[in-house]
Amino acid sequence: MEMQPPLSALRIQQEVQLRFLSPNDIEEVKTLCREWFPIEYPDYWYTDITSSPRFYSLAATHYSRIIGLVVAELRSQEKLNKEDSDLLANQFPPNTQLAYILSLGVVGDFRRNGIASLLLDSLLSYLTAKERSNCKAVYLHVLSTNTVALRFYERRKFRRHLFLPYYYAIGGKARDGYSYVLYINGGQPPWSLLYPF
Predict the structure, then answer these.
(1) How far apart are the C-alpha atoms of 109 and 151, rounded to whole Å?
(2) Range 29-41 average pLDDT
(3) Predicted pLDDT at 15
(4) Residues 6 or more apart from 13 whose CB is under 8 A from it?
(5) pLDDT(186) > 90
(6) Quick check: is 100 catalytic?
(7) What is the percent of the chain where pLDDT is above 70?
(8) Which residues form the N-acetyltransferase domain (predicted)?
(9) Which of 66, 113, 135, 189 could, after both became Cys, cross-link 9 (CB 3.0–4.6 A)?
(10) Which of 56, 100, 167, 178 is catalytic?
């Protein structure tokens, strides 16, 4: 028998609305990202994610207050960073698309209420629509010490792809990370028999 979420979680989910970010959200998003993430994003990044159509930037709101957001970008395989260049099997052409999750976060008081799952499910629905069938994977980078995020993505069927030593610079110190990937729309990993070993 599956456990049901607490009644308060159900009530919160019913009160949450989803909408795309707009330039009017920049200050609120800056504040949230500074609270959630140990990485300092440049100002132009906030402008881009709230105004450029190249980003999928979705906010979860509770009575007009942003309580969560997901930001992703479609990238062609040929333009991936070196550490991400081996996410797909060789059979896929260089123009094959992958979605990179830049950020996914939820306000502390609203965590463990299904908000991150709602945001991720919305992104995955968008990416698995017929018109985006050329997108074969969703991937992200995460701090190796962020056990809550690691467990979340693993429960959502993301696979650990690579260990990224010294990937992050946080507070002047090098920190390790992982890349995680979820294959969609017929996407396949570069190894088949042994992956993810």
Answers:
(1) 19
(2) 88
(3) 83
(4) 113, 114, 115, 118
(5) yes
(6) yes
(7) 90
(8) 16-185
(9) 113
(10) 100
**DSSP β-ladder status, 159-170 and 135-143:** unpaired
**Residue of 46, 62, 139, 141 with catalytic role:** 141
What does the alpha-carbon distance between residue 72 and residue 154 come to, in Å, rounded to a whole number? 18
Distance (Å, whole) CA 178 – CA 149:
11
pLDDT at residue 11, as a whole number: 61
Task: Report whether pLDDT(92) > 80.
Answer: yes
Q: DSSP for the chain, please give it.
A: -PPPPPHHHHHHHHHEEEEE--GGGHHHHHHHHHHH-SS---HHHHHHHHH-TTEEEEEEEETTEEEEEEEEEEEEGGGS-GGGTTSS-TTS-TT-EEEEEEEEEE-GGGTTSSHHHHHHHHHHHHHTSGGGTTEEEEEEEEETT-HHHHHHHHHTT-EEEEEEEEEEEETTEEEEEEEEEEE-TT---S-SSSTT-
Residue count of the chain = 197
Report which of 5, 2, 22, 37 is spatially closest to residue 113, judged by C-alpha positions: 5
**Amino acid in the structure at residue 103:** S
The amino acid at residue 55 is F
